[in-house]
Design a protein that fits this description.
With 428 residues, the chain is an alpha/beta fold. The chain is built from 12 helices and 24 strands. The strands form 6 sheets. Strands 3, 4, 5, 14 and 15 form a 5-stranded mixed beta sheet that branches. Strands 2-16-18-17 form a 4-stranded mixed beta sheet. A 4-stranded mixed beta sheet has the order 6-7-9-8. Strand 12 and strand 13 form a beta hairpin. Helix 1 runs parallel beside helix 2 and helix 7 runs parallel beside helix 9. The two termini are 26 Å apart. Bound molecules: shikimate-3-phosphate. Shikimate-3-phosphate binds next to helix 5.
Length: 428
């Protein structure tokens, strides 16, 4: 599918964006291994989270989906059963990485694969610590990428320092660590999203965080509890930036997760002079939530590097869009992880925004964006990367002339209904 986006004269109103992808994945995984029934509300029915549901069904769990309500009939920590076919994670790195940790501790072996993009994403980062715990994740490829064979093993607790700041790897080790014969401590180079820790403690586990060290003690049982998923800050980000760069705009995004490990984009945009307000801050199922208001702003360049990077890693393409409309230069550094996302996002962000008249220079660990104030419409590629397609769409709202996004349906990975939702905010 191709989508044509015309410029917006203004964007005004209130939107509800889909549930948080990270929290939705974890609700299925942890609900499946908790004892009892979990009712999830606000679940993201994007393709990635549906892949997680399909994998856990193949592991013997009954799961019912009714719109954004999901019911999981958990069978307890030792209730998963051997899959009779390959587990297919589709495009979802989170499913692959977290599930690999969990499967390493089961009394059966599994075979896991995914789409062409997943088959390029590095898995040594999960296999290495799992090996130290006594597990075995192997691949026929030298580079250790999916398809993977995961042997179910008796695991030992470890002390492990993560070589890359990755919530997916941390979470894989935490899930394996719950089944180990002693405590596991993971030290992160920089703090990453902590939804696994929060949800596990909400379900009765004992996960302690001290600075950047997370300790997980062996768990006897998790107890099912209902989970309300907040809206995804990573999805809200497109509406926030659209409001900032389109004229005469004010957009409110309701019920957005504002976990401190996720709101690097808000910090960065405020540093750039954005008019953003957080309202009605509250805690839901252990996660902080707020309504976010964003208004047309005069932005200026900034420097984004160091420990803020994991807190905005998925938002760098859309931050780059904001930076194109800012005064002066924005430098993004320490973000080499962008190269191993759904596409090489240093290359793909640079190529597609430059096609629209941006002046972005890619670097080895990020990019330098010269503010140009205006972009023009173009025919752009998505590279089947949802965040590239959606970032280009937002750039197109503030560009001159119309933009065509090729293979635009990849937005369904994390945001079903994305393009149409903007039409509800346009001037009639
Ligand atoms: C995620 C962690 C991040 C992020 C991904 C979701 C998660 O990946 O990019 O979209 O849910 O744990 P890394 O942990 O690989 O940085």
């Amino acid at each position: 599918m191709n989508t044509v986006i015309n410029p917006a004269k203004s964007l005004n109103g209130t939107v509800v964006v889909p549930g948080d992808k990270s929290v939705s994945h974890r609700s299925v995984m942890l609900g499946s291994i908790a004892k009892g029934t979990t009712h999830v509300t606000g679940f993201l029915t994007g393709a990635d989270c549906l892949s997680t549901i399909s994998c856990f069904k193949k592991l013997g769990i009954d799961i019912e989906v009714d719109g954004t309500n999901v019911t999981i009939h958990g069978k307890g920590l030792h209730g998963l059963t051997a899959p009779t076919e390959t587990l297919d994670v589709g495009n979802s790195g989170t499913t692959l990485r977290l599930m690999s940790g969990l499967l390493s501790a089961q009394p059966f072996n599994s075979h896991v694969t995914g789409d062409a993009s997943i088959q390029k994403r590095p898995m040594g980062r999960v296999a290495d610590p799992i090996k130290l715990m006594g597990g075995k994740i192997t691949s026929k490829n030298e580079k250790l990428t999916a398809p993977l064979d995961i042997e179910g093993c008796k695991l030992h607790g470890i002390n492990y320092t993560l070589p890359v700041a990755s919530a997916q790897v941390k979470s894989a080790i935490i899930l394996a660590g719950m089944y180990a014969d002693g405590p596991t401590t993971i030290t992160e180079p920089e703090a990453t999203r902590n939804h696994t820790e929060i949800m596990l403690n909400y379900l009765g586990a004992d996960i302690k965080t001290e600075g950047n060290a997370i300790t997980v003690n062996p768990v006897e049982e998790l107890t099912a509890r209902d989970i309300s998923v907040p809206a995804d800050i990573s999805s809200a980000a497109y509406f926030i930036v659209a409001a900032l760069i389109c004229p005469n705009s004010e957009v409110t995004v309701l019920n957005v997760g504002i976990n401190p490990t996720r709101i690097g984009i808000i910090t960065a945009l405020l540093d750039m002079g954005a008019d953003i307000e957080l309202k009605n801050e509250r805690i839901v199922c252990g996660e902080p939530v707020a309504d976010i208001v964003a208004r047309t702003s005069r932005l200026h360049g900034t420097v984004i590097k160091g420990d803020i990077i994991p807190k905005l890693i998925d938002e760098i393409p859309i931050i780059a869009v904001a930076a194109c409309f800012a005064e002066g230069e924005t430098i993004i550094a320490d973000a080499e992880e962008l190269k191993v996302k759904e596409s090489n996002r240093i290359e793909t962000t640079t190529a597609e925004l430059n096609r629209m008249g941006a002046e972005i220079t890619p670097t080895d660990d990020g990019m330098i964006i010269k503010g140009v104030h205006k972009l023009h419409g173009a025919e752009c590629n998505s590279y089947d990367d949802h965040r590239i397609a959606m970032s280009v769409a937002v750039a197109a709202l503030a560009a001159e002339g119309s933009t065509t996004i090729l293979d635009s349906e990849c937005s369904n990975i994390s945001f079903p209904g994305f393009y149409k939702l903007f039409d509800t905010l346009r001037e009639a």
